[in-house]
Write a structure and sequence with these properties.
About 40% of the residues lie in helices and about 15% in strands. By secondary structure, the chain is an alpha/beta fold.
């Protein structure tokens, strides 16, 4: 709390984020519940409905606005909050943001998996890297959801390592919990498999469908539960299902679900698949584990902090439908293994990745940053 004229005032947080994003909504609400005055400032063109205090920038796509004009608009939107701290929930690595941030505003930055170049095969221009590095150096504190992502961030500049904190996404275990009556799948019954991501290629939905075809060829019945928004590769997924009606017949597409509905679907499945090509943490896998569901996941990034192969789930090589099918068959054929993975996974999430612990940690970091008064160096000079 900030003391003003003898009275405690809520910490004023200018939160730069995508207003409609699920993570923005739950973080803004959680920090508000923690006693902070959170104002969400969204990128141009984003709708801010339902987000507490959302201001938004509404002058068309930011990329089409001259840098100085965009910087002025960002500055004015942030200054309107009169922030004690600026919380950048995604690394908005553009020159306009560098120019917009007043040196007197303490900055906390959360780095998501898509914010930095994790895959060395991906391109990163000199300007992009310069802006990312400058914003990271400008930050009082940087948070990453898992150690592998923190290591990527630290690679941008040697001085960054001492300013990185691990704050997992966290799971609300009051919402994501095992069913009151444990699921029991009898021999011969279909294996209910879940995949609750978009159908962008990075999340491996097409490979999952190929794995399900292998299961069917080996005599394993299944029901595949899909949920999530349509991504850039929705057409390929649709084309595959159209070409394989025998697979499509065993697919239930729940569409885009709110958090309460998705929690209910977790409790109806036997195994959750997260066969992404890249994951900084894997919050969907953590939600499944909290729900008592064994997980088959790609051996990538921060997933290793969640899933211990043979203990809390099974890890497979990314982009490997054959390996994925084999892992699913193993859990289908050995129910004791599936049950023990589900139980140990649930305990691991409850003891190490509880949502309220993550919120408490983040709130503490924001308060600590707000307590600093030392002006920062000019970002581009770093």
């Amino acid at each position: 709390m900030i003391q003003t004229q003898g009275q405690a005032q809520p910490l004023r947080v200018a939160m730069i984020a995508f207003p409609e994003n699920h993570h923005t909504r739950r973080w803004s609400r959680a920090l508000t519940a923690a006693g902070m005055d959170v104002q969400v400032i969204g990128i141009a063109g984003e709708e801010a409905g339902g987000v507490t205090g959302a201001l938004g920038l509404s002058a068309g796509p930011e990329q089409s606005i001259p840098v100085l004009s965009a910087a002025t608009r960002w500055y004015q939107a942030i200054a309107q909050v009169r922030p004690d701290v600026v919380y950048m929930q995604w690394l908005f690595a553009r020159p306009a943001m560098l120019l917009a941030l007043d040196p007197q505003w303490p900055l906390v930055t959360t780095v998501m998996g898509s914010d930095v170049r994790q895959d060395p095969t991906l391109s990163e221009s000199v300007l992009e890297r310069t802006c990312r590095t400058a914003l990271l150096l400008r930050s009082h504190t940087i948070t990453a959801v898992a150690q592998p992502l923190a290591d990527v961030v630290a690679g941008y500049h040697p001085e960054l390592r001492n300013h990185i904190e691990i704050v997992p996404f966290g799971v609300d275990t009051q919402l994501f919990r095992p069913p009151a009556t444990p699921r029991h799948r009898n021999a011969g019954e279909p294996l209910h498999v879940g995949h609750f991501k978009s159908d962008d290629v990075v999340y491996g939905r097409l490979d999952l469908l190929r794995a399900m075809a292998l299961l069917r060829a080996r005599g394993q019945r299944f029901v595949l539960h899909l949920a999530g928004r349509r991504g850039n590769d929705h057409g390929e997924v649709t084309a595959y299902l159209a070409a394989h009606p025998e697979i499509a017949a065993d697919v239930v597409d729940h569409g885009s679900l709110d958090v309460d509905a998705i929690a209910a679907v977790y409790r109806k499945i036997d195994v959750y698949v997260m066969n992404s090509l890249q994951e900084s943490f894997g919050v969907a896998a953590a939600e499944a584990m909290a729900s008592g569901v064994p997980v088959v996941a790609s051996d990538v990034g921060g997933v290793r902090a969640l899933v211990r192969s043979g203990d809390t789930g099974l890890l497979v090589r990314p982009g490997d439908p054959e390996g994925l099918a084999n892992a699913l068959l193993e859990l289908a054929r050995y129910p004791d293994l599936a049950r023990s993975c589900g139980e140990r996974g649930c305990e691991r999430v409850r003891t190490r990745f509880e949502w309220h612990d993550s919120v408490s940690h983040m709130a503490g970091l924001l308060r600590a940053a707000a307590a600093t008064t030392k002006p920062h160096a000019t970002p581009l000079a770093a």
